[in-house]
Design brief:
This protein is α/β, with parallel strands linked by helices and about 130 residues long. About 40% of the residues lie in helices and about 20% in strands.
C-alpha cells in the first residue's frame, strides 16, 4: 500500500480531504469507481455542463486508472479519490464539498455515504 498503485490520494481516502467549496457554490458529486464508470458518466457530465454552466461538478474515482482518465477527460473538474466509507472521512468530504446531490455510477454501494447523506437530506442517485 505504500509503494503500489493504491498509494495515491491517502488524505482524500482516509481523511476526506477532498476539494473545499464555498457554501454558496452549487455542487453535484459524481462517483465513478474506475475507467468504465468514468466513461459511463461522460454523457451525463456533458449534459450537466451544458444545461447548468454555473454548477460545480466534483468527480471521484476509486482506482488510479479511473483517476488518470477522469483528469484527462475533465481537466477543469474537481477530480479526487473517493474517501473510504468510514463515517469520519465521509462526513468531512460532505462538509467540504457541500453537494446538493450525489450520483453514483453503476451499483457500487457506500453504506455510510448513503446513510449520512440521507440524514443531511442530500439525495443520492444511482445511474
Amino acid at each position: 500500500w505504500r509503494t503500489g498503485r493504491y498509494r495515491q490520494g491517502w488524505s482524500e481516502k482516509l481523511f476526506g480531504k477532498v476539494p473545499l467549496f464555498s457554501s454558496d457554490q452549487s455542487c453535484v458529486w459524481l462517483h465513478a469507481v474506475s475507467v468504465g464508470e468514468v466513461q459511463l458518466l461522460r454523457t451525463l457530465i456533458e449534459a450537466l455542463q451544458h444545461d447548468y454552466p454555473h454548477l460545480t461538478i466534483a468527480l471521484s474515482t476509486t482506482t488510479q486508472t479511473g483517476m488518470e482518465l477522469a483528469r484527462r477527460l475533465y481537466p477543469k473538474l474537481a477530480c479526487f479519490y473517493m474517501p473510504i466509507d468510514f463515517t469520519w472521512s465521509i462526513r468531512r468530504a460532505l462538509d467540504r464539498l457541500n453537494p446538493r446531490m450525489i450520483i453514483l455510477g453503476e451499483l457500487e454501494v457506500w453504506p455510510n455515504l448513503i446513510s449520512i447523506s440521507s440524514q443531511q437530506q442530500r439525495p443520492v442517485c444511482i445511474v
